[in-house]
Amino acid sequence: MAPVGTTLLRGLLAGAGAGLATGLVGLVFAEPTLDAAIALETGGGDELFSRGTQQFGLVLGLVLVGAALGLLFGLAYRLVPAETRPWHRSLLLALGGFTALYLVPFLRYPANPPGVGDLSTLESRTSSYLLCIALGLAVVTGSYAAVRALDRRGVGAWQRQVGVTAAALLIVSLAYALLPDAAAPLGDTPAGLVWDFRLRSLGLQALLYAVLGTVFGIVAERSAASRPSFAERA
After folding, report:
1. Which strand (E) or helix (H) includes residue 32?
2. What does the pLDDT read at residue 234?
3. Among the four 20, 141, 197, 226, which has the fewest Cβ within 10 Å?
4. What is the mean pLDDT of residues 38-62?
5. Are 197 and 113 in contact (CB under 8 A)?
6. Are the beta carbons of 120 and 133 closer than 8 angstroms?
7. Per-residue pLDDT at 103
């Protein structure tokens, strides 16, 4: 396996590239929905920053978020046992990260466009969202550990995968029922616009993790293929 510094640098660069790609795609596919939401929020009044400045800030923010996520990705990659090829390990890690950090919280507390939500409940909604992230991390890491433990005990592939998936869904469902409801009032924002924004946000996050896992996996796989084996070095 590559040195820690090299792995972290790969993660940082792959994450920054994924953030840039997501930001550029977002400008094309998500910007019209965001523009409509902002127009409803401001009521046609003057904006503190121009839309061009906001768009640049959005792309830059995604690059920085992607870079930070890539560093965490590289660290997690080092911690995952090297039982599969780097390509497979990277894709599975990206899927697990997307599920834990975004999908599990999103299904309980979906994203809202500008102008939707009550500022007085912001603190409670943020706390609930962070609890969902912790839930996602616990379920994903616990599921991974359970699959490996069942594999060591000789349980068949489909039995352990179906069993662990069913248990994870049950745990998440029960946790959703216990978490506080944080439904935000839509106000004057049409429900169709809200759900359009949510689905586009989900798609962009999926793209971010997909690009990160793909780029990191390709680089790691090529590096592993070019590195001489122990027998060759001997």
Report:
1. helix 31-42
2. 38
3. 226
4. 75
5. yes
6. no
7. 97
